Structures are given as structure tokens and as C-alpha cells.
Amino acid sequence: MNYFPEEVLEHVFDFLKSHRDRNAVSLVCKSWYRVERFSRERVFIGNCYAINPDRLIERFPRLRSLTLKGKPHFADFNLVPHDWGGFVYPWIDAMAKRGVNLEELRLKRMVVSDEGLELLSRSFVNFKSLILVSCEGFTTDGLAAIASNCRFLRELDLQENEVEDHRGQWLSCFPDSCTSLVSLNFACLKGEVNLAALERLMARSCNLRSLKLNHAVPLDTLQKILAQAPQLVDLGTGSFVSDPDSETFRRLRTAIQKCASIKSLSGFLEVAPCCLPAIYPICLNLTTLNLSYAQGIHGSELIKLIRHCGKLQRLWILDCIGDKGLGVVASTCKELQELRVFPSDLHGDGHAAVTEEGLVAISAGCPKLHSLLYFCQQMTNAALITVAKNCPNFTRFRLCIINPTIPDPVTMQPLDEGFGAIVQSCKGLRRLSLSGLLTDQVFLYIGMYAEQLEMLSVAFAGDSDKGMLCVLNGCKKLKKLEIMDSPFGNLALLTDVGKYETMRSLWMSSCEVTLGGCKTLAKKMPRLNVEIINEGDQMEATPDDDRQKVEKMYLYRSLVGARRDAPDFVWTL
Amino acid sequence: MESSVVYEGDLNLKATELRLGLPGTDEPEKQNMSSVRNNKRASPDMAEDGGSKGDSDAKNGDCESAPAAKAQVVGWPPIRSYRKNSFQTKTEVETGMYVKVSMDGAPYLRKIDLKVYKGYADLLQAVENMFKLTIGEYSEGEGYKGSEYAPTYEDKDGDWMLVGDVPWDMFTSSCKRLRIMKGSEAKGLACGV
């Protein structure tokens, strides 16, 4: 029964931007499914092995924008061996062969090759936007192909990728006719760039809104670029070193003052702190500030800078800001929504970084805070309880106490109560990372209260299988669970096997699960891929000894069965 | 409780030891961690060194082989390897910053890599050792006192400047060559500039 003609349905669906909404709509009935699939242009695939390119293209022929995620999250921390997988080439190849009109490709934790980039650049005439986050496998030659061949390129955004720099002239490969760039981010490139080519490219890119330079771009070039691009909204400086008395610096100050639109600032990969006053004029307007790679700015200068940034909503800094500095943030940045405090390199420094004090100050001063990543030396239950009371709106709460099994230093108790308070108070919590000394009790709390929790990261926590079971039982919306070095074994793994089909993935490393347990699971649940990563040779020697503990297990639901590109050391059971 | 004794031991070390420093500096942390983990884990296997399981996990093996342990705990702390790599010695990527050093009266010049030094004290110490002289104490008002030498450098604009006036980073990025001036010329630069 269809009360509306399909065109109307399609028009209504146009207003649905979120993937979840579109997914929900496609489940209503067959005709809605059909209308939705023919009108869907943007697809998000959270695990590239859950589906294959052919089925994707089959279902969504009008695909224009594809987002893919590859390796499991713990790959970021070197827990996943190099050739594990996550290759994007087959996707590009399939889309090219089937004539997909691809305009945008966003990849996270995937292996991208120069051949893939070359194929991408030649196969899709309307290709506009390439965003690569935490990817690897390509060189600046691949970037040269993109620059040369993508005539209407608007966005090239490289975030924290491992790129082999051939010190070539990739920037010079943008043809003179290319004037469409809106966003260019090459901050993660390690090598030199052709500064003259960069300046010329910037001069003809009048639509440029976002620019992030790498460390090889000196202040002099920055000044020249800014003079021509006062419309920039998002700037990442490269090297910010100059003699404050020089002509160059004077020109920079003038240019910056004209950049009234800059709302987001980052970079300072090399910095002379005496040059920082040049940016004070734009600090007033900043909503985003990322100084997490600015090792050259010490605590006191950071504080001076922050005092100018009253409108900040998102702040990423290094822990050299200290608790006192966080106090300044708390009193200055009343609009703060997201805070990330990263550990700085403490070479022989020995000074305390940040502790629970800084976090409490922030929670008291910044009521809008909802997203946190906090690396610290220590944390107390009392502090967490206070934070939970001050900020009930957390959606993301990631705490990393550098020593992962340290108790509350004041009471010597585990941190169960503190995290318990967080999950109880923050009813909208979707992502949680635990650390510190933790028993099964914290998992009891999580299972009981964390109703919206979608992603949980656990390390060195818990006493028994009960802990993991509480989470699997209680967290109905759980999508991703990743556990390292915790005493959860087969009982926890096998009690509710159906649960894993409601989740995207489960990672367990250095836990107590055995080969036998994993085999049992794989047998019961054919629509799960249960992968074991064997780096040593022991498992090879005795593949039938089911009692051996599995070092790394990664399981995920999939519609297409075991993947065919797994390397030797990955067994799909 | 046995475990609290361990934790107290931890705390005293942790207060001063935390760092993401070079391998080798993490030992005490890892040793405590491994002993703590062993307390928590029921299975005796994990306490064994490498063990019959042939545990390929670097953590356990390295933790147990105490003093020589240089490996970090894999996967902890949870910092993206890109970030970790960018904090480690940047000098791996960049080539050295070699500048000529001349001393008045010396028969030949020397070359030093500015990147190697952490600051002025370090640099001047090295120069003193290289030329067997004393340079004296720096003061903003009066330059270098207590010696007939003054360290100077030629900057990007071609001017000869007294070493020590500007921040170290700015110095290293603008210094083209060094010259240790001697005698009356030095006095001219050292005082009342």
C-alpha cells in the first residue's frame, strides 16, 4: 500500500541526511526500500569486510560518496600487524568498472596504494573530495596522480597518514587550470614541498577555505599565502619561526589581522613562542584550536594564548598546559564542548603533567563539555564523581591514566565508583574508555546504567568473566567492544553468541579466550567472521590444541563470509 | 593487603617516572605492571617467562627479562603511532644543521651540528671544549664577562650578532656561521651594545 507516488517519497527522503535515518527508512517496506536505495548517494560502511563492493554498487547504483573504515581501532596502537588487511583497491576497481559516478571518498585506517590513487584519479571525472585518515601504503606519487588528473578537485585532506615522501613535485602537478580547491591539508607529509608551486596554487584557489601546511612551509611562505587568502576559515600553520623584528614577521601580522574569518587554528609544528602574539588578533574568533602537535609552546605561553580564546568550543592540547593551565581554560572557555589533552614527550622533564585537579576545574567551568579525551598521571574517585555531577552531558568520555592499573592514590581503592558515577550521570554516553585499577564492579555499573553506550574500550581491567558478561547483557546499543589484557575467557565469550550479530565488532587481545572457545563460536555463528591473529609460530605447530590461549581475536558480522585477502598469519575460523 | 603494598611502591615511582621517553626508561613501570598483572590474573601461565605457550606477546617476555627490557608495552598507552612517531626525535627526518665555526687566530675552521645541542649552555660548552678556551658568563646587559672571547654568529641578514640574545630556536634557524671573536674586537661586541 503506497499512499504517495515514488517521486514524493524520494523528495521526502532527500531531507534525510543521516545514515541511520536512511537505514531505518529502508526497512519499512519493500517499496520504501526500493525508493531509498535508488535515491541514496552517500553510504557509510563501518567495516569494509562486512560487505563487498559488488553488492554495495548493486544496491546503491547512484552512489556518489563512500566512507569506509578498515582496520580495527586498536591498530592505531600497533596491536595489528602490518599486512592485516583493509585494502581499498578492490573498492576503487569495482566502482571504476561499474561506472559509479564517484565524487567523494573518505577512508579511515585503510591501506591505500599509489596504484589505487592513480586508478581513482583516472576513473571518476567528477571526483571532488578525498579524505584519508590514519591510512598508509601510499607515497607522494599517488598524490601527484590525484593532483594531475582530478580536474574538479575540491578537497584533499590528509590526516595523520603514514605517507612515504618521495620529495617529488606533487604540488606542482596541480594544473594551472585548477582553481577549484576549497580544502587542502598536507600537514602529515614529512618532506619538503615546492614553495613556489604552493604559492601559485594558493593564489589561483580563490575558493580556498581550509589550508593545513606541513612543517616544511616556513613563516615567510605562510605570510604570502595569507595575504592572498583572507577568506580562510581553517588554518594549520607549518613552521612558525621568525625573528619578531623582521620585515617578514611584520607582514605576517598585517596579513593575519585581515583574516577575520578564521575560526579554526592548528599546526605550529615548529614554533618560536615569541612569534605567537601575531595570532592573538584572531584568537577572539576561534572556535577550534589544535595545539596537540605544537611541542615548542610551553605551559606559560599556552596559558597566555588561551586567555585570548574566549569562544573556544573545541580544544586539543598537550598536557604541558598543566592543571593550572586547565584552570585558565575553565575560566576562559565557557563555550567549551570538546577537550583533548594529549601526553607530551617528557624527556628528562619530570614535571607533573595533568592530574584529576585539572579535569575537575574544567568540569566546573565548562558546563557544555560533552566530549573528552584525557591523558593524565592519576585520577581519584572523588574527582570523577564531581566531574559526573558537573557535566551530565558527556557523550564521549575517554580517560587514560598512563599507568593503567593504578588505584585512587588517595584512598587506594579501584576506580569503579568514579566511572560508575560517570555512567550513571551521563545518560547520553555513547563512547567510554576506561583505565586505572578496575574490578568487575565497574562493569556491573556499565551494564546497569550505560544504556546508550555504543563503544567501550577496556584495558587491564576486571577480575572475571562476570565483568564482560555484565556489559554484553546490559548494553543494548553496544556496537564495538575492544578489550586488551583483561581476564575474560570462554565463558564470557560464549554465553550470548547472538549478541555479536547486533554489534559491528569485538576485539580481544591478551585475554583468556582459547582457540577452542573461538572455534566453538565460529561454528555456532556462521555469519560472524572470527579471525585469529598469530604472530608467533606456536599456533601453527599445534593447530589442534584447543586449550591454547589466543593472543589476538577480532570478530565481526559480515554478509559476505570470510575475506579472501587475509594474510597467512590471520586465520578465519 | 599484599596488593596495596605493590601499589604504594608503584606510586612512589610513578610520581616522578612517567614519561613517553626513549625505550629503556620505561622499565620500572613495566616491571610493576607485570607484577600487578600477575596478581590479577588467575592463570599461572602468564607469570612464566615466555613460557610453554611460547607467548609471542612482547610485553610478557620483555617484562620478565628485567633489566635489559627495552620494549614498550605494545598497545599502551593508547596513542596513535603517528602521534608517537612525530614526537620522537624529529632529527631523524631532517638533516643536521652544520655551521662553520671560526676562531680568531686558529689555523683552520671547524664544523658543528647545531641540532645536536639543547641550548646555549650546551653549545658554548662544546665550543669551549673544541677550541680549548673559556667564554665566560652571558648577561643580557653586558654580554660575556670574564673572558677575552665573545661568541658571535652571522644571521640570515648577514649581520654579526652576539650569541645568546634571542631564543634558542630562533638562533638555530637564523644562524649561518659562528665566529669566536677575540681581544679588542670582542670587547666591542661584548660590552655596552
TrEMBL record, chain A:
GO molecular function, one term: auxin binding
Pathway of action: Protein modification; protein ubiquitination
A Pfam family assignment: Transp_inhibit
Species in which this protein is naturally found: Actinidia rufa
The organism's taxonomic lineage, starting at the top: Eukaryota, Viridiplantae, Streptophyta, Embryophyta, Tracheophyta
Localization per Swiss-Prot or TrEMBL: Nucleus
One biological process term in Gene Ontology: SCF-dependent proteasomal ubiquitin-dependent protein catabolic process
Keyword Lyase: no
Name the UniProt record assigns to this protein: Auxin signaling F-box 3
F-box domain span: 4-45
UniProtKB/TrEMBL annotation, chain B:
Basic and acidic residues bias (residue ranges): 50-62
Annotated spans, Disordered: 16-66
Family as reported in the entry's similarity comment: Belongs to the Aux/IAA family.
Listed name of the protein: Auxin-responsive protein
Its job: Aux/IAA proteins are short-lived transcriptional factors that function as repressors of early auxin response genes at low auxin concentrations.
Pfam families: AUX_IAA
GO CC term, one of those recorded: nucleus
Alphabetical list of PROSITE patterns matching this protein: PB1
Location in the cell: Nucleus
GO biological process, one term: auxin-activated signaling pathway
Subunit-level organization: Homodimers and heterodimers.
Major subcellular location class: nucleus
Keywords: Auxin signaling pathway, Nucleus, Repressor, Transcription, Transcription regulation
Keyword Zinc-finger: no
PB1 domain boundaries: 96-183
